[in-house]
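Supplementary notes for students who missed Thursday's class. We covered one full example, reproduced here. Read the sequence, then the structure, then the short commentary at the end.
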Amino acid sequence: MRSAGGVDVFLANSAHVASRIQKAYRRDAEVLHPPVDVGAFPLREAKEDFYLTVSRLEPYKRIDLLVEAFAARRERRLIIIGDGPEMQRLRSKATPNVELPGRLSTPEVRDHMQRARAFLFAGIEDFGIVMAEAQACGTPVIAFAHGGAADIVRGDTGLLFGEQTAAALSAALQRFEQDRGRFAAAACRENALRFDRPRFRQRFAELVRAHWERFAMRRALPA
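Structure (token representation):
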């Protein structure tokens, strides 16, 4: 706590992390979203009939909730790209409409992101760059409403579900299917540009300049 008191400025990569800084250190933090290489994920308007997630298969990612939700919605197809210690368990639970091809190359991942009907995210991340990459492709995001997802997903670019359960995810999928026309690919792309690298550099420079000027003024004041 003594060390935290000597810090001039805290920067957080999402509002979620800023709240944790406030809780731990009793200090406000400036939110500076991390840079996303939006140019590496081109927009694709036409979408296909499958849902997607891309993730390291770790327990905290909650990929099991996706598998469970699609077991109850077998008319819909889910592709889970990634590898990790949960692979065997997830494959044992997966129904025929759920595919786990393992880890794929970056071009293959990008191709899936561009074609997916929507990108799914059930875990909690400090930010979650993969969701912003999906938005850059023009792909709506359906995510658990905690962590960085709350900063990334807007009302016209995806849906957030409030409980970390398969039932809540399934209900969000149903809402999405009923109102798919609301989530335009161009809106998703525009949303992702908020996190593009030039925007990050601009925002970072603005923060440094503003806080340095305040710091310099304090140093100039007489003791």
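Commentary. The CA atoms of residues 64 and 89 lie 9 Å apart. The chain has ten helices and eight strands. If anything here is unclear, bring it to office hours.
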